[in-house]
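Hello K.,

You asked for the raw outputs rather than the summary table, so here they are, unedited. I folded two proteins back to back in the same session to keep the settings identical. This is the first:
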Amino acid sequence: MDSALFQENERTAAVTDERKIAHLGPFQTERGFEFSGIQIAYETWGQPNDARDNAILVCHALSGDAHAIGWWSRLIGPGKAIDTEKYFVICSNVLGGCQGSTGPSSLAEDGQPFGSRFPIISINDMVDAQALLLDQLQIQTLHAVAGGSMGGMQALAWSVRYADRVRKCFVTASGAAHSAMQIGFNEVGRQAIMRDPKWRGGDYPLNDPPRDGLAVARMLGHITFLSEDAFGQKFARRLQGKEAFDYHFGVEFEVESYLNYQGDKFTNRFDANSLLVLTRALDYFELKDLSPARAEFLFASFTSDWLYPPHQSETLHLMAKNSGRNSDHILIDLPYGHDAFLLDGEVQGSRLREFLG
């Protein structure tokens, strides 16, 4: 199996060197919550052309950040499918996140973190905040919007909510709405956090968060990112640093050590309340048709992705075709699971370059 499957994925690394902060003023959510002001962290690569119509907005997945050239390095960069020498590439940390954009750990007007006071938000709210950012950057028309997983849902929302601003829409490893199983995965993660005594109803000190619950939530998430074959090839039933069982509830198998490591690492750079808020937004999202859209669509899915299985992308493709849109769906046979959309630069890259060009 390709060793790229198990290398550390830079989508989880918060990068502050090039991060900019846009102060966007008052903002009202779909459900009517009024922020006196929000900020969105973002990064850009390349330059806008004279017509300012060569921009590509990249939308990140649940645990991502604005540093798209890091976590999607196989697709974004000089000479790559999303060519930063040709396009003006923009990526922002979503509203509700914890990497510089307004979220539950941000300070409210009273100088204290929002915590439990942070509102339920939607994918549409994330997209509306991004639209304000693009207004500030004087980008009226997007050559394309692109994203995978939660980022794919944002791209879909862009295509219908701001139809006259989007020419092309690339959606990979995503879906029109979560199934009961996908909602179930998210609920287990949320309950792991909320049943941690340190969650304190959402109003925990930022220096003493519910690390244990967040770590367990991430362990579950990490299992869904990969595939059975991937786990088998990497770990099988090998023991962790020993030749025989110790017959206890500590770490026995290599895979247990790996998941514990991934969970603990996650707690150092992600906020538990953000995970609650963003997974709720994912579960509430439901796209019923693409008839308002004007964009061309490219959908990609992966044979081994059991978190967002290929039939969900096929449904989106048929939805686009039934709405009279030009659309294509590519099914890619790779063993990497859901993370294939981050790890595959060849098949996706070749088709995406053609689509964008």
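The second followed immediately with the same parameters:
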Amino acid sequence: MIAYIIRRTLYAIPILIGINFITFGLFFLVNTPDDMARMQLGVKRVTPEAIEKWKAERGYDKPLLYNAAESGRRFLTETIFFEKSVKLFVFDFGRAEDNRDIANEIRTRMGPSLALAVPVFLVGIAVNITFALGMAFFRATYLDLWGVILCVAMMSISSLFYIIGGQYLVSKLWHLVPISGYAEGTDAVKFLVLPVLIGVVGGIGAGSRWYRTLFLEEMGKDYVRTARAKGLAESAVMFRHVLQNAMIPILTGVVVVIPLLFMGSLITESFFGIPGLGSYTIDAIQAQDFAVVRAMVFIGSVLYILGLLLTDLSYTLVDPRVRLD
């Protein structure tokens, strides 16, 4: 087990290096340091001297990948890539273009993101699995048919419709909760009720339909027919056999998402004015703040790799036949 974890960790290093290169290349493919300076200075006509000063203050006055004017190790170290991206591997995120500490911003904004993402995640799993078990239990009936139709219809509706429709109906017409904003402590509940509800409802279609497929696949296997032949009730077959044996594919989709909860929801946080990591990333993209963008992409990559590792480890908990060597 320990050897497996070490091996997977070592595999992650070249993946993170590749992601770093791709993120760096894509960003500077559409932006130059001069473009970033003009964007941050916020004026239509800016002097070349002001641009050069801005670049020198933030380390963008150096070559991107290699410095032909230097020799030896400085050929690679005196570059924008080395100074801006390599430090990420020791989780030194540096400062944003507005000079705020990125690590401090991440710590501050992680709380609101988790306050939104965790309830959506937990309630969504419970609702989706319950609904999918109900459809599988009443398979080939009108309840199953209309359940599938409802799922397909909900999948076809954009998440923006749920957000805008929920804000208009619940907040503007009924005045039950604030339309947007956030507060600390228990006061945050009134701001989170609507986005959590919308997050759960928006995921029912795809989630329930996928779980239903898993349950129906398990119900067609020999061990289920054997359990029925022994006289077990259908409810016992569903919960004691089908649900338990479907846990491996369920864990594949569930555990891998857990680390990504820290990243927040890009769209939901922006629409509801929640100061989480999702809205922080959107604001950074709009402001062309490469420092924040590369930090968030790197963290997301690390968390995704961690999620895959946790998924493999969780297999051993639900299926003793799985061995990680």
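The mean pLDDT is 87.

Happy to rerun anything if the numbers look odd on your end.

Regards,
P.
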